[in-house]
């Protein structure tokens, strides 16, 4: 039916948008982590607990 087709198209569109958003988020997070590691290694060492959380979040 037309309704089912429209719904599947809109769902596909939403998933594309969310993929782009997730990709942007991933890039910015990578940049943030890189900057963190370069400029503030002691801060990263203090906040070592967040690393597994970030890893889990981005590799899910």
Features:
mainly alpha; 60 residues; 0% strand
How would you state the average pLDDT, rounded? 72
| Beta-strand fraction estimate | under 5%
E-strand count: 0
The global form is: elongated
Contiguous runs where pLDDT drops below 50 for at least 5 residues: none
What would you call the structural class? Answer: mainly alpha
Summarize the biggest pleated sheet. none
Fraction of residues in H or I helices: over 70%
Order of helices and strands: HHH
Radius of gyration (CA) equals 18 Å
Question: Count the helices. How many?
Answer: 3
Distance between the termini: 34 Å
Protein name: Peptide transporter family 1
Organism: Parascaris univalens
Any overview of this molecule?
The chain is mainly alpha-helical and 60 residues long. 88% of the residues lie in helices and 0% in strands. 0% of the residues are buried. The chain has 3 helices and no strands. The mean pLDDT is 72. It has a domain of 38 residues. This is Peptide transporter family 1. It comes from Parascaris univalens (Nematode worm).
């Amino acid at each position: 039916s037309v309704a089912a087709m429209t719904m599947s198209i809109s769902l596909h569109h939403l998933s594309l948008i969310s993929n782009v958003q997730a990709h942007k988020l991933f890039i910015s997070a990578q940049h943030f982590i890189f900057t963190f590691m370069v400029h503030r290694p002691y801060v990263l060492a203090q906040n070592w607990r967040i690393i597994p959380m970030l890893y889990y979040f981005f590799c899910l």
